[in-house]
Design brief:
Layout: H1 2-38, H2 64-78, H3 85-95, H4 102-117, E1 124-130, H5 140-143, E2 144-146, E3 151-164, E4 167-182, E5 194-199, E6 204-205, E7 216-217
Antiparallel strand pairs: 1-3, 2-3, 3-4, 4-5, 4-6, 6-7
Helix pairs in contact: 3-4
Length: 220
């Protein structure tokens, strides 16, 4: 009789152990499920454009190549007036507002109003492009200056062409020192996580041949 009692006791202890193991597995699964649920759905990783060599960096780090590409792309789109600067410039400022800091957006609106008053926008067609031999790959150390892990100064050497109708009214070669800052607050509207903060200093006219010394300040 005692043998059967011992067997029953052993089975009850085994069942209790299995129940505790099941409860522990359920708790682990619950914790893993909560971790999965709270994990970010999207993760922005900046990959250098030149993939000929490997790159090891923290996922949150923004390489200078990406900062330069962002600054040039946004600045070029901002200054692209395909039909009429009076309409195109205002539309660009509004459309690109997620990629601008509030201070920069305000500055550009004031710039638009002043240009409109002086007649610099009406029927103007404008486009900008990098001066050949003055892009990021030609001298990357001078193109992006790291101020902090959240702030950069990007130097763009730009040729700007403006037309009124079919007549070219302006061609300027200008060095633009642009401020870029990390602003990862709205990934739906700004997947770059960066924002243009307008100018670090006054834009400077540059000569046709490569030169590290600007010669005269200019307005945009």
């Amino acid at each position: 009789m005692s043998r059967f009692k011992n067997e029953i006791t052993h089975l009850q202890a085994h069942i209790k152990t299995l129940r505790m193991s099941a409860a522990a597995l359920f708790a682990i699964a619950l914790v893993l499920g909560l971790g999965w649920w709270n994990a970010p759905r999207d993760l922005t990783i900046h990959v250098p454009p030149d993939l000929r060599s490997g790159s090891v960096r923290p996922w949150w780090d923004v390489p200078p190549e990406s900062v330069y590409a962002f600054a040039f792309y946004i600045f070029q789109q901002l200054n692209r007036w395909p039909t009429n600067g009076e309409e195109d410039y205002a539309r660009n400022i509004h459309a690109l507002s997620p990629y601008l800091t509030p201070a920069c957006g305000h500055f550009l609106k004031l710039d638009y109003e002043q240009r409109q008053r002086t007649g610099e926008l009406r029927q103007r067609v404008r486009g900008i492009y990098e001066i050949p031999g003055r892009g990021f790959g030609d001298d990357p150390t001078q193109r992006v200056r790291v101020v902090s892990h959240r702030d950069w100064v990007v130097t763009l050497d730009i040729a700007a062409d403006e037309y009124h109708g079919t007549e070219q009214v302006k061609r300027a070669l200008v060095r633009y020192p642009l401020k870029v800052m990390r602003l990862d607050i709205d990934p739906e509207r700004n997947p770059f996580g960066l924002a243009l903060d307008c100018y670090d200093s006054t834009p400077q006219r540059i000569e046709t041949e490569p030169s590290s010394t600007p010669v005269a300040p200019v307005t945009r």
